[in-house]
Amino acid sequence: MNFFVDQFLQYLQVERGYSSHTIVAYSNDLNRFVQYCEENGFTKIPHDNPANSWPDAHNIRQFLYFLADFHLSKRSIARNIATVKSFHKFLVRKKILQADPTRLLQAPKYSKSLPSALSEDRMQTLFEDLLKVKSDATYMDYLVAAILEVLYSTGMRIAELCSLQKEQAQASQLRIIGKRQKERIVFLGKSSQEAIKNYLSVRQSNHTALFVSERGIILSPRSVRYWIHKWIMLRSNMEKIHPHQFRHSFATHLLNKGCSLRAVQEMLGHASLSTTQIYIHLSRKKLQDVYHQYHPHH
Questions:
Q1: Quick check: is 32 catalytic?
Q2: Which residues of 128-152 are buried (b: 16+ CB within 10 A; e: fewer)?
């Protein structure tokens, strides 16, 4: 079975353009499915004729009980099921299987948590804290200021920020490649352009990447989280902030100001509008305020 799993993962990487992080997640999910199949006697599935030896719909429904033994959350189980269903659709499409035994398999329902966004007041306080340290600013201060300004100005993902090149810093518009190799344009406001300019003025490295450590090492998503957390501990009175909150805040604040959902979708790089719609829930209080302010019979 691992033979078919490898084919599927290669398809996701080469043809669908999934990121290495996503490939690892799919691989982990399918490893559990392979383990279940091996423990239940599906160990000798021939490459040339797998149909007669493949788990049927009943066997695959039992996979749900197998996942429960891992003490996974409903959300994680739902993701595992989605991965297995996607895997089987691939096998049918490639005519490796004639029918999809996961067609009627349903994942457990779970409540989707709303993304955490900073209020506009808290965001303003954070950037005021950035300005306060200019007199004794260190490399870390300039680096973190530029990172936070770019994250909030563009709404880009952390991995996208880490992939930015120094030559891109000269423009007010950035062409970036997001998930599944989806290309989009994001915009740098005046504050973010100024923060990048200040950061580059103290940077000594000749590395082609835009964001690097003081020793010239390109930043990874993990190191971005480290530097932001360290800066907040040393320089701000705010509680711990996750970098992805700037993406959520970017979307929420634009919607609060009247930006269309479709435009926010394009700027975030979401493939589906339904993914962007979750931010409407965060803007509902703002919509209520507008209603009470302007509707004559509120």
A1: no
A2: ebbeebeeebeebbbbbbbbbbbbb
CA pair distance 265, 261, nearest whole angstrom: 6
Model pTM score: 0.67
Q: Which residue among the candidates 61, 179, 207, 229 is catalytic per the annotation?
A: 179
Catalytic residue among 79, 157, 184, 253: 157
> Is 2-93 a domain of CATH 1.10.150?
yes
The residue annotated as part of the active site, out of 184, 247, 248, 253, is 247
Q: Which CATH architecture has domain 120-291?
A: Orthogonal Bundle (1.10)
- For residue 225, indicate whether it is catalytic: no
Query: Is 88 in the active site?
Result: no
Of residues 180 and 150, more confidently modeled: 150
Q: Active site includes 281? A: no
Q: What is the spatial distance between Cα 5 and Cα 7, in angstroms, rounded to a whole number?
A: 5
Query: What per-residue confidence (pLDDT) applies to 295?
Result: 56
Res 48 pLDDT > 60: no
Per-domain residue ranges for the chain?
Answer: 2-93, 120-291
Q: Is 279 a catalytic residue?
A: yes
Specify whether 270 is catalytic: yes
